[in-house]
């Protein structure tokens, strides 16, 4: 009980000094809790939607999957006549046919895409009784003819659509227009999908390519009949040619894709939260180390009157426990706020999430509390252990905490060994022949080098801080030398403070190098390999009407079609491979200059010929002149001669197996031919600008596709990688904020520790302005020390990662020096910002009171 009272007294006595550490715990726990609440809420939203919208039993084609991406772009369908067999099955109350397609684009009168912008699909189909499970008509009426359509209210609100407006729907089977006659509103949360409805006949004709077809049957069970019993009855009536699922099975299947997507988001965000926790550990260690040092006399008195080492140790750990509990409780509450903020952010980009579905599972606060408390207590263990070692007599003589030279030497040797092992692992990764093996060694190298730098930080501080001081501080005379001495006074503290900033900046530097190298490699590969003037692609495959518009564009020397086919290859050694093939026009050899290791790519576009990649050829012993068996899905099996082996040392079309479109049409029925994944074009001589303008005009009615020349394509690639990096930097900002709090806390506690010294310096003539400058300089040099370590580590990690990317064809190492320099300079401003409050407080000290401080 005495230990508890002592710890509580000390905690409350130093509550101001504990505040920043508590904020670090709060931020880290809040990010973890917010991530869990956000992902759980997303799962709840989709679970409700799937549960409500799923029919008691659904019947779909046997090969139908959750994602509507058949090879030929037209949804798989069922014959309408089969519906009567379903209705006749025992236990069926009612059954209806539904048409659903996700392979559509809907545009308004201004030719703007009204689909979701969040990545959610655009759904088109017929209005059915089953839709009433999750929607209700709140304006107008359901479509009744070929010129009428109905949209969901979220899409209408987002794009300013009203009853009477005209929409054009672009499907694989053609374009058609209809006027809005109704608005339907979701009765559950709509995660962001755009939904348009048509009458059944129009949906069948325009979305499925003909009458008397349905995408699925929705079956309702009679009273007293379970879903499982109904499924068995319907399956017995239809046989094995169809896929029959209960409502639960349909919901589970729909949830699988969502769970995979949410898992990526969840673990990525938790990873960044872990980085923030790691940075927070240094802050907590520094805080308790300094508090222990400042209470040396107090601890000595406790030992002198009978307190054991265990009691002193336990007293410090109880303080850490209090800090962890307070920070974690506040963090869990803040996490709910972060989750709500993320939901609002997602809503602003088109994914609607209602706070009515806010889900806080019991495990979330438990995880937050346990994680925050355990991390805090573990971080405080070393300072607590050090407190227990304080000698009563040494403390009473104000000798301070014991200096352990042997421990420092062991620490130095251990740090050098870990750093050397990390460097060796990075070198091994850079020389790896396979990306998988290299990635493992890269991970080992990153972890070992990071730990090594943390351990050896105090030794590095003595060297790096002196160098930085010589360059930056000596020009400020005595004040600069005082700042240098203060930074070097406790190398362990300086090392830990700098290490906190080092972690975040190392990741920033590494990712900057990787991103810049990817852009440089890809643009270099484009310059070297791409001969086409224009590239056309989009989020969906290119519909035939857009293909015709491109083929009819004036000023083009040629247009190249590019189709990806589902097919199974059988090599001469009898091994099967179902990665598919690529069918394209002979002009592709001009549009993409693929080097070959054997044969000529142009020959591969002859009849009954093909090309394979060098890796496939090496794995299966394939040579030019060999014959491969190619079984086209939905078509015949062909015997094709290998006319070329392309070099897979590239980032473009690595591993592609080419054949001509003429060969494809010989073995694949017309209704199974897939639309183009991408198309290329070459301008006629001297007509590049005119052809570019004409091509953009020709494809203007199809806003889902982008026309890009090589300059546009490079910029788009750069923008995409830049957006990804900015998102990652935003998440890493949490760790950097915690690191800044660490610098603030270190300086604040250092000012308290040096109160008497500051009073004496003021007494002999140091002005308030000089004092504040000294503290700011100390902060800047500590921040720059951490930045140098972090940027150095990050550059090493990034260069190694680029060597692994080179195995995938990204061969250019590009170091973004402007970014690196900006981060280094920014670190100096971080140091200045962190010193504002401590410097202000130091400047306001009363000189006499400071001198009289014990």
From TrEMBL:
The chain crosses the membrane at residues 267-293, 316-342, 362-384, 413-432, 438-465, 499-520, 727-752, 779-799, 819-840. It is found in: Cell membrane. This is FtsX-like permease family protein. InterPro entries: ABC3_permease_C, MacB_PCD, Macrolide_Exporter_MacB. Keywords: Cell membrane, Membrane, Transmembrane, Transmembrane helix. It comes from Streptomyces ziwulingensis. Belongs to the ABC-4 integral membrane protein family. Its main location: membrane. It is a multi-pass membrane protein. Residues 272-392, 731-846 form the ABC3 transporter permease C-terminal domain. Residues 19-236, 497-694 form the MacB-like periplasmic core domain.
């Amino acid at each position: 009980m005495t230990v508890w009272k002592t710890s509580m007294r000390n905690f409350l006595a130093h509550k101001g000094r504990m505040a920043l550490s508590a904020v670090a715990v709060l931020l880290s726990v809040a990010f973890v809790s917010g991530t869990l609440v956000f992902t759980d809420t997303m799962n709840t939203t989709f679970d409700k939607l799937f549960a409500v919208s799923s029919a008691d039993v659904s019947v779909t084609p046997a090969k139908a999957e959750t994602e509507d991406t058949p090879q030929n772009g037209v949804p798989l369908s069922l014959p309408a006549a089969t519906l009567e067999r379903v209705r006749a099955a025992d236990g069926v109350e009612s059954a209806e046919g539904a048409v659903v397609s996700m392979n559509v684009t809907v545009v308004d009168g201004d030719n703007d895409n009204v689909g979701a912008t969040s990545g959610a699909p655009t759904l088109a189909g017929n209005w059915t009784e089953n839709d009433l499970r999750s929607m209700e008509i709140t304006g107008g009426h359901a479509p009744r003819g070929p010129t009428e359509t109905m949209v969901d209210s979220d899409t209408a609100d987002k794009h300013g659509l009203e009853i009477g407006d005209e929409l054009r729907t672009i499907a694989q089977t053609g374009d058609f227009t209809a006027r809005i006659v109704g608005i339907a509103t979701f009765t559950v949360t709509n995660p962001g999908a755009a939904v348009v409805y048509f009458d059944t006949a129009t949906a069948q004709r325009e979305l499925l390519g003909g009458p008397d077809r349905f995408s699925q049957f929705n079956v309702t069970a009679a009273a007293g009949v379970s879903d499982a019993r109904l499924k068995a009855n319907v399956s017995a009536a239809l046989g094995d040619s169809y896929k029959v699922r209960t409502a639960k099975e349909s919901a589970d299947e729909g949830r699988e894709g969502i769970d995979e997507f949410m898992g990526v988001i969840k673990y990525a965000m938790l990873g960044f939260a872990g980085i923030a926790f790691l940075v927070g550990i240094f802050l907590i260690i520094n805080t308790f180390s300094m508090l222990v040092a400042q209470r040396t006399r107090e601890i000595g008195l406790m030992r002198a009157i009978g307190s054991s080492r265990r009691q002193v140790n336990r007293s410090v750990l109880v303080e850490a426990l209090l800090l962890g509990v307070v920070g974690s409780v506040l963090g869990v509450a803040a996490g709910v706020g972060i989750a709500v903020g993320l939901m609002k952010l997602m809503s602003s980009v088109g994914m609607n999430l209602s706070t009515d579905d806010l889900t806080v599972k019991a495990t979330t606060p438990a995880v937050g509390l346990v994680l925050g408390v355990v991390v805090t207590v573990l971080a405080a263990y070393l300072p607590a252990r050090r407190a227990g070692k304080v000698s009563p007599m040494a403390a009473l003589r104000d000798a301070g905490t014991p200096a352990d030279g042997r421990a420092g030497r062991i620490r130095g040797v251990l740090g050098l060994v870990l750093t050397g092992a990390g460097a060796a692992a990075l070198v091994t990764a850079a020389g790896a022949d396979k990306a998988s093996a290299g990635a493992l060694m890269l991970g080992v190298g990153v972890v070992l080098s990071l730990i090594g730098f943390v351990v050896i930080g105090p030794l590095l501080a003595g060297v790096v801080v002196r160098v930085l001081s010589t360059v930056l501080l000596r020009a400020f005379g005595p004040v600069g030398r005082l700042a240098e001495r203060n930074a070097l006074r406790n190398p362990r503290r300086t090392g830990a403070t700098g290490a906190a900033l080092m972690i975040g900046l190392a990741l920033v530097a590494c990712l900057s190098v990787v991103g810049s190298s990817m852009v440089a490699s890809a643009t270099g590969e484009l310059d070297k390999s791409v001969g086409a003037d224009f590239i056309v692609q989009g989020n969906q495959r290119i519909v035939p009407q857009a293909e015709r518009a491109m083929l009819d564009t004036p000023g083009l020397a040629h247009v190249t079609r590019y189709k990806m086919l589902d097919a199974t290859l059988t090599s001469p050694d009898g091994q099967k491979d179902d990665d598919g093939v690529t069918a394209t026009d002979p002009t592709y050899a001009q549009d993409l200059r693929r080097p070959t290791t054997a044969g000529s790519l142009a020959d591969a576009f002859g009849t009954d010929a093909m090309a394979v990649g060098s890796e496939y050829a090496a794995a299966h012993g394939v040579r030019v002149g060999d014959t491969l068996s190619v079984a086209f899905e939905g078509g015949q099996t062909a015997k094709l001669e290998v006319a070329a082996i392309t070099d897979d040392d590239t980032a473009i079309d690595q591993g592609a197996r080419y054949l001509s479109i003429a060969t494809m049409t010989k073995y694949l029925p017309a209704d199974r031919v897939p639309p183009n994944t991408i198309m290329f074009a070459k301008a006629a001589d001297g007509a590049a600008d005119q052809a570019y303008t004409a091509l953009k005009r020709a494809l203007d009615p199809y806003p889902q596709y982008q026309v890009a020349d090589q300059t546009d394509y490079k910029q788009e690639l750069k923008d995409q990688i830049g957006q990804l990096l900015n998102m990652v930097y935003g998440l890493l900002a949490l760790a950097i904020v915690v690191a800044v709090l660490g610098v603030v806390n270190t300086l604040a506690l250092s000012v308290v520790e040096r109160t008497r010294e500051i009073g004496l310096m003021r007494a002999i003539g140091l002005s308030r302005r000089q004092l504040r400058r000294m503290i700011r300089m100390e902060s800047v040099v500590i921040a720059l020390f951490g930045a140098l370590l972090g940027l150095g580590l990050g550059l090493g990690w990034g260069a190694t990662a680029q060597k692994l990317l080179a195995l995938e064809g990204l061969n250019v190492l590009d170091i973004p020096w402007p970014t690196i320099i900006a981060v280094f300079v920014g670190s100096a401003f971080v140091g200045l910002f962190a010193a504002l409050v401590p410097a202000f407080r130091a400047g306001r000290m009363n000189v006499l009171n400071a001198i009289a401080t014990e």
